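Peroxyureidoacrylate/ureidoacrylate amidohydrolase RutB: structure, please.
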Amino acid sequence: MEKLDLLPAQTALVLIEYQNEWVSDYGSLRSKLVLDEEQFEQAITHSKRALSLSRELGFTVIHVLMKPDKQYKVFGQAEFGLRSAISKSKRWQGFQGEIHPDFLPQENEHTVTERVGASAFSGSNLDCFLRNNGITNLILAGFATHVCVESTLRSAHDLGYNTFVVTEATGSFTNMQKSYFSEHVVHHFGKEIRVSDLYSLSFN
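Here you go.
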């Protein structure tokens, strides 16, 4: 991969839903939805490397959570889609909604909790935080590849951000879903990179 001309001060790693629902061995969504477990476990391993390296390189680190109110009123009376599924399943509460210990935010890292949709930008202060801090380059990782990561990628593109996806640090329910994202989706809205590509970043 060619060197990327990015300044650390203008670059953020955006970690999407590193909560126990997905990351813990006891995650309820993980046990219910993930069919290709090896791919999912590899995504967690690569995510740890991406986080460690991003901190070393001086990127801003942003933790995006799903933290609905206990009555799920923020999602309204949706009849279908994610808003309906989350409300009916009563997910993301208690232990399942907590950030996994391997990905706990450090004191200087930003946490987004106000989301009301699949995209990290939906109903949150993420766009405001990025613009106020002069961040123009986003590096995405998290869960699930074909749902919240993809939705965030599309939103970031339309908002004008230069967006990279560390696809190996994202987890899908199946290998086919991740392959489809890599082959048919990501290049329309951003650029796919590997964790090892972070070493090739060129800073001016």
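Notes: Strands lie at 4-5, 11-16, 60-64, 110-112, 137-143, 162-171, 191-193, 201-202.
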